[in-house]
Amino acid sequence: MKSHVRTLQIAFTYIGTIVGAGFATGQEILRFFTRYGHWAVLTILLATVLFIWLGTKMMVIARRIEADSYEDFNRHLFGERVGSSISLFTLIVLVAVNSIMLAGAGAIFQENLGLPFQAGLLITIFGSYFLLKRGISGILQINSVVVPLMLTLSLIIISNTLGVPGAGRFLFLETDRSIFGAWMSPLLYTAFNLGMAQAVLVPLARHTDEEKSLVRGGILGGAGIGFMLLAAHFAMSSQMPGILQFEIPMGSIAFRLGPLVQSIYLLLIFLEIFSTFVANIYGVGVQLKQHLPIAPSLVTPLLMLICYLFSQFGFSSLLGVFYPIFGALALVWVIMLLRAPMSPPPRIADPSGPEGKAITIVAVKPVIRITRK
């Protein structure tokens, strides 16, 4: 039972890390998939396979090499110097993204609840701080709440879309986009999201005792991401091309389903911002604790303060510069992940045997426990 619970926690955290506010609004799905018409179903299936395969592989390798942070993982893929440089650039992008998410939380409080913008920022920061005091278990707990809610909303949207006249349009939707662009989109989408998610998934793998839980969680999580992509694409295709005019495409669908679904949707967007903010702060904090000459307990508050200060300014132009560069690096990162061998678990030789029998390290703690094969 404990193994099954851990598998679900890993799957939910994987989904919650990939599925952020951009996913919830529908803009990501519209840009990377739906606008490519009938190709979208096939490209979503390709993205699903990549999420299952590469996400699982990343977590398994991270556990086997005992990577404490995504910097350790990048050094394993690229070597010391290049890996450290890529990790530094990733840190800058993550801080910028977190600042944007924090500003988004403030906007939700201001525009939909009638509360001050600063109230949204401070509630998100203090809530994240107290949750992060629980470490990786806090991330598992918040995603165990948010992701089932996301899956439930996906099912509600699917059931309501089935009665819409254009429900079957997702299979035959015409597009004037190039085939090359259609098939590059799932590669870029997967690379970018996995490049960002490594900040959470690498330390998560390091703190998982059983490798089989990582494998099952990676498979289940990747499949869940694919299901939610298909559900959103199915709903938005029925409203094409009119839905292209909306800033929040999924919101235009949710708001038609009544006040209850509208309230759930707004809560969901905030919770996705909150859970992604928590996860990214944790991942960046783990890396910074390896370098900053200050008490580890001060790293998280300092990082949150930086994000709070930056959230007061517009970051669209900054992300406009960093995102394309990071997207290109993410493709290189995925290629290196594809090429990376699946390192076997650590093994040492038994000097008592005549031929040096192999013994496998079962756990590496302050005390090493081994079993003889």
TrEMBL record:
InterPro entries linked to this entry: YkvI-like
Q: Which UniProt keywords apply?
A: Membrane, Transmembrane, Transmembrane helix
Its domain of life reads Bacteria
Transmembrane residue ranges: 12-30, 36-54, 86-109, 115-132, 139-159, 179-202, 214-236, 264-282, 294-315, 321-338
Write down what this protein is called. Transporter
Look up and give the organism this protein is from.
Paenibacillus borealis
Lineage, opening ranks? Bacteria, Bacillati, Bacillota, Bacilli, Bacillales
